[in-house]
């Protein structure tokens, strides 16, 4: 009599389901955080000029309003160039955000011929208030809010998983994170493990946000139109900050691929952070 060893079936990868669940969760969180930013603007009106929404906003630009005094002030400080350039272009851009006050930006741009017959473009954008006067809210406000948004993302997902067993995306796609992958009705992770798993899952994203905030701290403070024009020239001459941002984002994309995508070629139903938390993602209705 020949005995055939039976192997426990391995759980499927669910890569597309997990990706779709992530998209649903990110959309739900973006809407929720937009309401939180709107509440912050109501509670602290002084922050309104610097607050912006990363979701549910529109930006339109037109030549109307090009006669405002702020445009002439920008052009007065505009640096001269020996290169052949087109006349300066004036545009008034309006940003409408959900539950946030409208923002208006005076944008002056220039196109000129560079080396190898390439066209170079540089521009200055100055925010103006309801009286058409230039204002200079700290960019650290919007950058700080963006960083907080990334830091709270894993916490929100973890708390929702702890309270309801899984996030809205996993609920919609029928997925569950559990330490009991072969049970018919597996128990979800306990609250501490659920939150820790989400922070491990998203660490490349929130670490990137923290580094970007640190880079923003090194940027010079702009408090006048002359300073805004000068910052344009400084940014063109000193590319270190731009290089730092490009290297940081490229490294983050590589880490995200290794952290989120590559493990699915090795394991089924698990990623690196799942293995660290000793759990699986399985399909259950």
- General form: elongated
C-alpha Rg, in Å?
A: 25 Å
- According to DSSP, the number of beta strands is 7
Q: What is the assembly state of the chains in this entry?
A: single chain
User: In angstroms, what separates the terminal alpha carbons?
Assistant: 41 Å
Per DSSP, the total helix count is 9
Quick check: average pLDDT? Answer: 85
Relative strand content: 15-25%
Helix content: 40-55%
Helix/strand/pairing class, anyone? alpha+beta
Query: What are the segments in which pLDDT stays under 50 over at least 5 consecutive residues?
Result: 1-5
N to C succession of SSEs: HEHEEEEHHEHHHHHE
Strand order, sheet with most strands? 1-2-3-4-5
Q: Sheet with the most strands?
A: 5 strands, antiparallel
Organism: Martelella mediterranea
Transmembrane segments: 20-44, 140-164, 242-262
Protein name: RDD family protein
Keywords: Membrane, Transmembrane, Transmembrane helix
Strand and helix map with partners:
Elements: H1 15-43, E1 57-62, H2 69-76, E2 89-97, E3 100-113, E4 119-128, E5 134-135, H3 139-164, H4 168-173, E6 175-178, H5 191-201, H6 203-217, H7 225-237, H8 240-261, H9 272-276, E7 280-283
Antiparallel strand pairs: 1-2, 2-3, 3-4, 4-5, 6-7
Helix pairs in contact: 1-3, 3-5, 3-6, 6-8
